[in-house]
Structures are given as structure tokens and as C-alpha cells.
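#lab-general

N.A. 3:47 PM
ok so I finally got the sequence cleaned up, no stray characters, all 400 residues accounted for. can someone with queue access submit it? mine expired

B.Y. 3:52 PM
send it over

N.A. 3:53 PM
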Amino acid sequence: MAVNAEKLTPAMKQFHKFKQQHPDSILFFRMGDFYETFYEDAKTCSKVLGLTLTSRSKAKNPIPLAGVPYHAVDGYLKKMLQAGYKVAVCEQVEDPKTAKGVVKRDVVRVVTPGTLTDDMLLTAKEDNFLCAVSMGTKHKAAISWVDISTGHFFAQEMPEDRLLDELLRLSPAECLLADRRGELFETETKKLISDITQLTNAVVTERPGWYFDPYQARQRLLKHFGTATLEGFGISDGEDSLICPAGAVIEYLNETQKTTLGHIRNLKKISRQNFLQIDPTSLRSLEILRTIRTESTKGSLLVSLDETITGMGGRMFRNWLCMPLCDLGAIARRQDAVEEIKNIDGILSELRKLFSNISDTERIAARISTFRASPRDLVALTSTLRQIPQLRGILEQLDR
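B.Y. 4:20 PM
back already:
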């Protein structure tokens, strides 16, 4: 996009500065009550969102322009993400009424498929995972994944030939890969990208190799958790295979969210020995998540068995189905808990009635932590907290 900077207005100079910082994203540039897009971004948004393409000036070379109202931006963001685009949101960071000269602006976040926190952009009973993939030595691979909307953060190592099985189980919205140079690496990366996109429909994002550098990744994680070691998370200093993708996840979140990530407080190391490993063929043949005939969730084992009330419960139940327990002790404890509830008359109906008034506190807490909570979130949280004394009273019956 070749332009003459001397002929640009102060606001357009701001636009070009932020666009240069985020060349791989569509830039939503706040101007009053609208988010405006310009040049090729405007043409793209016009096609994807069905917007009328206009121009900013009537000069010889008018600037293409398309805008969306700020109060309806979530719906437009959802469409852009579904079309495979990332969106950098540039806000006015001072009151235009008190601004001296051009209003100060800044990119406050980059919205990508794997970094969503707003309910309108999410499915209540499904996790929205951002995943980083690291190819190791001795035919090993490692992945780390996070749902920023809840703060759940995991890492796992596996044989290389199990990688795609794990990604299918997770169904991440976005996968991070190292941008590795060299003919051999580029060929391997292209094949991996093709496999991931075909199997999971995830958007693949390549990041610089230093994202996955063991030393930098470790320092990043230590800084994030405020610890001197990762051993408290079950990860030794020598487990670079797990540290590399986990560090890449944190770096990408820092890059795109531009806010605190205090709700991500734990990194859980997953040991597959404790869970039954379901390969893609079995997952499909057993119609655990979708039916073979229609590829729909309707009629699947998940939908047939899911009696959960809250989004939190729905997400947990989905994970239980995809990762059945192998540990006999853990299975027995889960069965004992079910039996205890079943044996007390009326307690299940009381719990279900109570849960119908409980909001998705996991996701609300995440939005509060990242300074993106709305007044509606706070009202919902207040209503939920008022249910706690009654919930506690019901659960105390189980301890008797």
C-alpha cells in the first residue's frame, strides 16, 4: 500500500502506523461511533461482511472505506473469524472532547480464533483452545493448549504418530507452529499444516522460531507464574519438549491480548497413561461427538448423554467423554460421587434447579481478569454468588 505520508491526515497517519505493526490482521480503526477499515482491508470486509464499499475522499485516488457500528462489532468480528481472518482492534484511548489535536489511539487487542473471551463469539458447552505444536527429537512431539476464556492451561508429550490424534480430540480453534526455514523444514511444515487444517479445521498461525526457544520459553513461563522453577507444575527443568510449546502459548497471548493474564494460574501436565486413548477412526465410528451420516452433533453420544445445565458442566462432560479414565481409583471415586447424590432423595433435582440460576463464572472471571467484563457480566456474577449459601447447604448433606 504505497501512500504519500505528507498528504495524509493525522488520523490516517495513525492508521498506517498501526497497520504496519499488524500487517497480517484486518485493522478495525475506531472513529467516533464506527470502526472503519481502509484500503485492502475495506475491500475484504466489504466482501466478507456484505458492507457497502465507499471512499474517504473524492480525490484522484480515493481511499476505499467500509465501516461497522461499534455497538454491533461482536457480530462482525464473529463473521471475520469464521472467514479465517484475524482482527486488530484499534480504540480511541482518550476522550475526543478533551483531546488536543488528533485523538490518541492504540491497538488494545488482536482477535484471533484461539483467543476469544466474549460469549457472543463462543459456544457455551465447547472449549475454545489455542494450541502450540512443537516437534522434538526421537520421533516425539509436544503440544500445549489453553482456553483463555476459562484459564485452563495444559501441556503434553506424545509419540509423533499420535500428534494428529490428540489434535483431533482437542479440536483447537487455532494452532501455533514455528516458522522454520530450510527446504526440508518447509516441506515438513507444509505437510503438518495441511494435516492439521484438514483434520481439525483449525487456523494455523506460524510464529518466529524464538517463540519456541527453550530458554526464552522457560523464562517466559517463570515470569508469568512468578516462580523460580516449574517443578511445582510437575515439569522439570530438563523437559524442554513441554516448556517450548507452553512458552509459545504465553508469548502469543501477550502479543495479542495486551493485558494481564492473571486468571491463567496453573499449567497441568497431562499423562496419557491415566486416560484411554481414542484414535480418530474410533472417535468417528462410535459417533462420540458427531454422527457419521450427517456430521452433526445431534444424535451423537455426547448430545444423547449430556444432561448438564451450565456451560462449565457441558465443557467438563465433553472432556470426560473424549478422555475416558483408565485409573481404577479415579473411576471408583467418580462412581462413589454419583452414587452419593443418587442415594439422597431429592438432592439431584435441587441441584439442577439451583444450577439453572448459575452463570458461566469461569468465563466471567476470565473477562474480569482481562478487563473485558461488561455490566451484564457483573450482574450475572452477583446473581450467581447469591446462590452459593444454598448450594453449600445442599452439598453439606453429602458430607454427613
